[in-house]
Specification:
Helix content is about 25%, strand content about 30%. It has about 290 residues and is α+β, with helices and mostly antiparallel strands. It has one domain: 4-Layer Sandwich (Nitrilase/N-carbamoyl-D-aminoacid amidohydrolase), CATH 3.60.110.10. The strands form four sheets. Strands 5-4-3-2-1-17 form a six-stranded mixed sheet. Strands 8-9-10-12-15-16 form a six-stranded mixed sheet, covered by helices on one side. Strand 13 and strand 14 form a beta hairpin. Helix 1 (about 20-35) runs parallel beside helix 2 (about 70-80) and helix 3 packs parallel to helix 4 (about 190-210).
Length: about 290
């Protein structure tokens, strides 16, 4: 039987060039978070490497690995030892020449619960992910862990209300968003930086409100090439109120208590799911309504 109170942690760090160094660092941070009481711990997007998608480079495919694979096994042992649930973002080598941006979910007994493959793949200056990643084909997923039923979406997915809605409708109580997003290092306007960051936060807070779920978004920090990652990892409740929030520049372990009883409270007082007119939404399957 789940406890209604679920302590979670988001690990916000910078990344170095050596994947082994990043893996060791992540494992140490996970241990620290578990010592502080976290039961579900989520790492940032592609935590094993620096954000290589800033350019199209064939050598970067060498970072990819099978799932389950070496890093998954390391995390399974850690989850089993500490009795924690882990959400781990990896570069998946599915087959020769076929790759995904994938999140693995591991339960508190070390069992591999499955994976989610990023559905929405950006292709913008500094974020050339279509060169590397095939869009996900597993659909929107939920995972019934020891401590809560969770959903995982990845970075660019966070801009799409449909993704959050479908994951919530499948029973997710907490939506985790492993993320790698930042400003162009050449962008010096404080107003532009603020507005970009606020838009990123606002869209995710709206997912919490519209669906009556907790949202936990974890970003990296530090400057890599032409990107300055803005951190600002946060956890909000089902009414979009921020519970805990990290600074934009600091490495940190962000801890938050998610009281799952608040989901029923907010959904009964603001019954958005009850009042949906599902029979009117068929046109959402069209690209645009001319």
């Amino acid at each position: 039987m789940y406890s209604e109170m679920v302590p979670i942690a988001l690990v916000q760090t910078s990344c170095q060039h050596d994947p082994v160094e990043n893996l060791v660092k992540a494992c140490n941070k996970i241990r620290e978070a578990a010592t502080q009481g976290a039961r579900i711990i989520c790492l940032q997007e592609l935590f094993m490497t620096r954000y290589f998608c800033q350019m199209e480079d064939y050598e970067s495919f060498n970072y990819a690995e099978s799932i389950p694979g070496p890093s998954t096994l390391v995390m399974q042992e850690l989850a089993r030892e500490l009795e924690i649930v882990l959400v781990v973002s990896l570069f998946e080598a599915r087959a020769r020449g076929l790759y995904h941006n994938t999140a693995v979910v591991i339960d508190a007994d070390g069992s591999y619960l499955g994976k989610y493959r990023k559905m929405h793949i950006p292709d913008d200056p500094g974020f050339y992910e279509k060169f590397y990643f095939t869009p996900g084909d597993l659909g929107y997923k939920v995972f019934k862990t020891r401590y809560a039923t969770i959903g995982v979406l990845i970075c660019w997915d966070q801009w799409y209300p449909e993704a959050a809605r479908l994951t919530a409708l499948k029973g997710a109580e907490i939506l985790f968003y492993p993320t790698a997003i930042g400003w162009s290092a050449s962008e010096r306007s404080a107003e532009v930086r603020r507005s970009q960051q606020e838009a990123w936060k606002t869209i995710q807070l709206s997912h919490a409100v519209a669906n009556g779920v907790f949202v936990a978004s974890v970003n990296r920090v530090g400057t890599e090439g032409e990107l300055e990652f803005w951190g600002n990892s946060f956890v909000c409740d089902p009414f979009g109120q921020i519970i805990q929030e990290a600074a934009h520049q600091d490495e940190t372990i962000l801890l938050a208590e998610c009281d799952r009883s608040r989901i029923a409270f907010y959904r009964s007082h603001w019954p958005f799911l009850r009042d949906r007119r599902i029979e009117t939404y068929g046109d959402l399957q069209k690209r645009y309504l001319d």
